Structure to design on (306 residues):
């Protein structure tokens, strides 16, 4: 069964069309990335899924149950680390987590254990008595995640979880998300960091102007929609390239041959063999690996961070 099913989801905010019929299915245990530039509709999708925003039309289900009519069931399955920081300024962190556990009806003995474990796991133990305003940006992020996990949901939604955090903490969070994924959690991550989606996600949907424009594993998307470059520099110019390289897309300029390929790993050894068997002297090889960024550019005609 799918952990999350979204069908033909539509939403406008007084004249602004935010979602134009979004379809997404996320399998149980999948690490799914929703990738798109600002304003693409990521947060709106998530907010509808978690009941914060009302949809105009379409369907959102969690483990087969409708998130509107079966809200009591579906909200327990989902923990969300939202983009906006929580406004609970007055209580210490451990109390806030206990309140959150109470909100989900977790018995207090269990809640205490859960909160202790999360404070420990997220490196917040020493800050347990701190108020949110006293935390660094990175600690606030970690607190958001602890809060999302307090009722041990099967699905974790992370809305831009590493926006504005430094590289070190970003890598630390990535390790933590991977651990949660390995433990079996289904994770829906929104991000506009391509690298993040490429590193972490089994599957990615690229969303632009309220529509999913493509989806697949990062590898599939890169293979399907982007080409990589291989440039071979020869030590001497070579006559008769056309007769040996007719199966490949290339351009040449005296001692430099540039190939475009959708399968660089497969093509590179073949090209090298053909050239050396024909007596060409290869001096140097350069490759430019394509990425989801290229896929995004090809599909939408714009950079993702614009
Ligand atoms: P993303 O999370 O991908 O940045 P959003 O879902 O926040 O995208 O926004 C999608 C579109 O809906 C944008 O054009 C945004 O300006 C608009 N929008 C989002 N929330 C509101 C709101 N509360 N009122 C009016 N317009 C909104």
């Amino acid at each position: 069964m799918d952990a999350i099913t979204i069908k033909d989801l539509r939403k406008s905010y007084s004249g602004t069309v935010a979602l134009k019929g979004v379809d997404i299915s996320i399998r149980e245990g999948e690490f799914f990335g929703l990738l798109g530039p600002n304003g693409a509709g990521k947060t709106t999708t998530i907010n509808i899924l978690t009941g914060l925003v009302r949809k105009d039309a379409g369907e959102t289900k969690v483990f087969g149950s409708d998130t509107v009519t079966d809200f009591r069931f579906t909200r327990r399955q989902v923990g969300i680390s939202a983009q906006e920081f929580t406004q609970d300024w007055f209580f210490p962190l451990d109390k806030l987590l206990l309140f959150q556990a109470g909100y989900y009806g977790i018995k207090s003995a269990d809640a205490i254990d859960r909160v202790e474990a999360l404070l420990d796991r997220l490196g917040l133990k020493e800050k347990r008595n701190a108020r949110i305003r006293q935390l660094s940006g990175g600690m606030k992020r970690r607190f958001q995640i602890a809060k999302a996990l307090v009722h041990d949901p099967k699905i974790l939604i992370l809305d831009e979880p590493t926006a504005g955090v430094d590289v070190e903490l970003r890598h630390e969070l990535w390790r933590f998300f991977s651990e949660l994924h390995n433990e079996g959690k289904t994770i829906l991550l929104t991000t506009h960091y391509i690298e993040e989606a490429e590193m972490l996600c089994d599957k990615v949907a690229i969303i632009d102007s309220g529509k999913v424009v493509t989806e697949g594993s990062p590898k599939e998307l890169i293979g399907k929609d982007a080409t990589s470059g291989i440039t071979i520099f020869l030590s001497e110019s070579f006559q008769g390239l056309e007769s040996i390289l007719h199966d490949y897309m290339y351009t040449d300029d005296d001692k430099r041959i540039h190939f475009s390929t959708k399968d660089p790993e497969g093509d590179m050894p073949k090209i090298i063999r053909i050239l050396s068997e024909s007596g060409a002297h290869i001096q140097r090889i350069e490759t430019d690996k394509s990425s989801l960024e290229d896929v995004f550019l090809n599909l939408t005609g714009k950079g993702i961070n614009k």
